[in-house]
Amino acid sequence: MQMQIEDVFMTGATTPAPLRNAAFCSIWSSAQVANLRWLVQTVAIGWLMVTITASDLTVALVQASTTLPAFILSIIADTHSRRSVMIIGLSLIALASVALAGAAAFGFLSPWLIIAGCGFALNDPAWHASVGDIPAAVTLMSTGYTMTRSVGPALGGVILAFLGPLAAFLFSACSNLAPLAAVLRNKWHARPSPLPAERMSTAIRDGIRFTALSSDIRATIMRATLFGLAAIAILALLPLVARDRLADDPIAYGVLFAGFGTGACVAGLNNRLLRQEWLMAIASIACAVCCISLAFTSSVPSATLALAFGGAGWIITWTGVDVWVQLASPRWVVGRTLSIYYAFLSGGMAAGSWIWGNVAQSYSLASSLELAAAALLVVAASGLVLQVHLGAEGDQQGAVFPAPSVALDLKPQSGPIAARTEYSIDESDLDSFFDHMRTRRYALARAGARDWTLQRNLRKPSHWTETFHTPAWMSFRRLHHRLSLSDQDVSQLLAALHLSEKPAETELVIERTTDARRTRSHPVPRVLRP
Fold first, then answer.
1. Where is there biased composition of kind Basic residues (predicted)?
2. How far, in Å, CA of 109 to CA of 241, rounded?
């Protein structure tokens, strides 16, 4: 059976609507089983670490080990089949779980072996990029995870207390089969592209360029990284809180984790508010309150209530940020922007786990939690500086403009290609002209244009010339394919300012040096018109 994941976007924008798509529903349901197994394994690992090592730093590094693989391995979701990436990622997760179960069975567990085997994260960027056009789908994925958070930790505590770590690892290894089978059973196709696949190096470079030039994505990633750096203290230090400040009992540890998940679940179900920017600041404050409460409480019920606030702040932030990144990313680059976002987020969490573990080990657990709370208050205030202004939804698909016709038989690698467009602009329209050109410049740069310039004719001041370059003919075709409908609107606004009755035409030239050989693959330079 072949299904189109993209069909999910035709079912409506409300949160339950994507579940009407059979492929999405199958994979989403199996993902909840995978989430449950991950939470059971996390509880088992966290508690096992506090029993086999006295190092607070080593315990905190468990969270770093579950996020660092994403920092290293996530930049491939746009350059390969997303389904294939998911299969590889899920297979690696299954192998890691089996290895941990085998090590537990034969008594080979050690702190660093546990850290090394905690996680692989190839699956998430591909899965999110496959369904990222509609906020409802993103929210469903986050909400599904938070729903299992309210059950998984408690289940992990029960398994750990009555059956031991080996049973938890075996449960985790067996549960990995559900999502892998769902992805293997369901097939879907990405929207076809008339252009060949990009090389890995080119795709990474274009993704980084787009992300660097998009102010909204830059601000979102910076805020997410800072939040991850500070808020990871809650999860990284929770095993130490359970051991040193509360009841030294795996079931109590599971209950604490379940409190965190319950708060996240309640917040996730009220998803319509999650993209409000003002709520992101409140979410950081809620996590700060959680840290302060954990630093001073010695009561399991009080700590569980505090963790419910922390879980709500956690899911509000991550669901909102996920939606922000995907709404700000055109489909041609969404996998790469998500991967870069995950990379910085995972790096921030890994660094935060190390920092708060070091502070707890060198000073005290309370000091580490108090400093994390102060950092979260700074993150809450960062929204005043790192503001996000998202445009309207639905401009992510890109416009299918016809490829320019040329008089030469160009090869994909032929180039460099220079594009030159001449305008005649009245002096009274210059302010509007500059505004539109500024918008056009950033749109072209994000799509791959280089060396953009705007020149004014000194003898004919009303004549302006826009130029930009691409390194090869295929690069120019990709740029032409990536421009969105809003970019076309800018072109029409510029055309309206053009004084001449003859429309502004774009001339294309292929650049050559004087010593270039005149062969069929290196033709004589000449002007080409679209």
1. 519-530
2. 23
Averaged pLDDT, 460-479: 90
More confident residue, 128 or 307: 307
Q: Would residue 423 count as lying in a domain?
A: yes
3-state secondary structure of 268: helix
Q: Are residues 471 and 354 in the same domain?
A: no
- What's the burial of 366, exposed, middle or buried (CB within 10 Å: 0-12/13-18/19+)? middle
Length of the chain: 530
Question: Using one digit for the tens of pLDDT, what is the confidence trace for 37-60?
Answer: 777 777 777 767 666 665 656 555
Two tokens, residue 316: 């509000």
Lowest mean pLDDT among 370-374, 388-392, 450-454: 388-392
What 3-state class would DSSP assign to 196? coil
Q: Is the dihedral of CA 27, 186, 124, 137 positive or negative?
A: negative
pTM strictly above 0.90: no
Indicate the DSSP class of residue 6: G
Q: Are 437 and 467 in contact (CB under 8 A)?
A: no
Residues linked to residue 421 through DSSP beta bridges, in sequence order: 466, 506
Tell me which residue of 164, 76, 67, 165 sits closest to 120, measured CA to CA: 67
Cβ(21)–Cβ(7) under 8 Å?
yes
Asked whether 525 and 510 are in contact (CB, 8 A), the reply is yes
Per DSSP, the three-state class of 467 is strand
Say which DSSP state 425 is in.
B
Range of the domain at 467: 417-528
Tell me the CA distances in angstroms from 478 to 141, 269, 331, 394, one per residue in order. 31, 40, 13, 20
Cβ-based neighbours of 401, under 8 Å, separated by 6 or more: 480, 481, 483, 488
- Do the domain assignments include residue 410? no
Q: Distance between CA atoms of 227 and 501, rounded to whole angstroms?
A: 54
Check residues 256 and 69 and name the one with the higher pLDDT: 256
Which tens digits make up the pLDDT trace of 184-201? 777 655 555 566 666 767
Give me the CATH number covering residue 498: 3.30.70.100
Burial of 529 (0-12, 13-18, 19+ CB in 10 A): exposed
Domain with residue 110: its CATH number is: 1.20.1250.20
Confidence of residue 527 (pLDDT cuts 50, 70, 90): very low
Q: Residue 406 class from Cβ within 10 Å (0-12 exposed, 13-18 middle, 19+ buried)?
A: middle
pLDDT in tens, 166-179: 888 888 778 777 77
